[in-house]
Design brief:
about 160 residues; alpha+beta; Ubiquitin-like (UB roll); DNA polymerase, domain 1; 2 domains; five-stranded mixed β-sheet
Length: about 160
């Protein structure tokens, strides 16, 4: 089987990409679109470093074939900020020192975004559950959970401000 031509929307931009049938979404994001924020960790779906949002849901891009993302919307860490302004999750990770080495950070943030989109007032358990598929070797998770809860407060303030 030869290459497939797929249409994919990544970070609100449409792309037409030729892919091999076996190429993963992770490989296309990094090698064909130059988006290096999505990290290749284990390539086995165990670490979560490659987490992106596909149609608003967190997915492991190392386990998804690029062809499966055809016609869908992909959001990566690079697409979160608006211009020079960081997304509240990104700001909260910096503010709460939840970065450490930074390798797992994009996956942690991208796993947390659908949670906050669906539940603007998550409990600590909700946050921990949303991060079940994401590993961090540096932080012990407390500061990561604190950052997500802090981001929820910021999102809620922004939402309350926008309604006024």
């Amino acid at each position: 089987m030869g290459k497939l031509r797929i249409m994919i929307t990544v970070n609100h931009q449409k792309h037409e990409v030729d892919v091999e049938p076996y190429e993963t979404l992770l490989d296309v994001l990094r090698n064909k679109l130059g988006l290096m924020g999505t990290k290749p960790g284990c390539r086995e779906g165990e670490c979560g470093a490659c987490t992106v949002n596909l149609n608003g849901k967190a997915v492991l891009s190392c386990l998804m074939l690029a062809a499966q993302a055809a016609g869908k919307d992909v959001l990566t860490i690079e697409g979160l900020q608006e211009g020079a302004r960081l997304h509240p999750l990104q700001e909260a990770f910096v503010k709460n020192s939840a970065l450490q080495c930074g390798f797992c950070t994009p996956g942690m943030i991208m796993a947390s975004k659908p949670l906050l989109d669906a539940n603007p007032n998550p409990s600590e358990k909700d946050v921990r559950d949303s991060l079940t598929n994401n590993l961090c070797r540096c932080t012990g998770y407390k500061v990561i959970v604190d950052a997500v809860l802090d981001a929820a407060k910021s999102v809620n303030k922004k939402g309350a401000h926008d309604e006024n």
